Amino acid sequence: MSLSVDLIEALKRALRAQGMTYRVLSQRLAISEAAVKRMFSRRAMTLVRLESICEVLGIGLQELSGDADRGREPMARLSEAQEQALVDEPALMLAMFLTINRWSQGEVLAHFDFDVPQWTGLLVRLDRLGIIELLPGNRARALTARNFRWRSDGPMERHFRAALLGDYFSTPFTSACDALFLLSGSLGPDGIAQMRSRLEDLAREFDGLLARDAGLSAEARTGVSLVLAQKPWTLQVFDRYRRLPFG
């Protein structure tokens, strides 16, 4: 199998991992859906087109090539055991964050209180957990999808609700990097579905920006976390005013 075919198969896996259809991809590329289907069915496209699709997906050619070599689907979610291991040891969670965000060993040692043996040990554990693939020179390749998500009501989400939520909202959102919008209202089923779709689009855009800026040095990047949520909810202090159901 030629390299070009391997790359296109890796592109298909990346599309599936991000839940992106040919129709959505065609809209992002400003070409017809038929043209996109033709490129993939014939397994032939120019390098320029390949790069443009990678840009839409928020992945680099080097990352795509690595996925093509592995020939398997990237993980869209971690297992319960993998998440629990990260929750149980903050240093391991930090190591995962740094490797996924492509920090080099030199950058890690310059900014965090690890020595080489400690950092190597964390990378080895992440490799054994199946979260990364450890490469020569303590380089790491993430085995997760670019837009992997934590498990619904899994160890990490429960840890966030119990221990991290208060920390996240403990300081005002007043700096140039901050944004906080407290919105509430009543929507019909179509409006709710549309808002959820927009939140998913925003999450994909965030993933793309992470990929775009991954080549910058650690000093040129700022760690940013988004909390995107939507649910039927009203303040509990309102409950005292509700009428009790008859019966």
UniProtKB/TrEMBL annotation:
Domain of life: Bacteria
Residues making up the signal peptide according to the UniProt record: none
Residue span(s) of domain HTH cro/C1-type: 10-64
InterPro entries for this protein: Cro/C1-type_HTH, Lambda_DNA-bd_dom_sf
SMART domains tied to this protein: HTH_XRE
Protein name per UniProt: Helix-turn-helix transcriptional regulator
Organism ancestry: Bacteria, Pseudomonadati, Pseudomonadota, Gammaproteobacteria, Lysobacterales
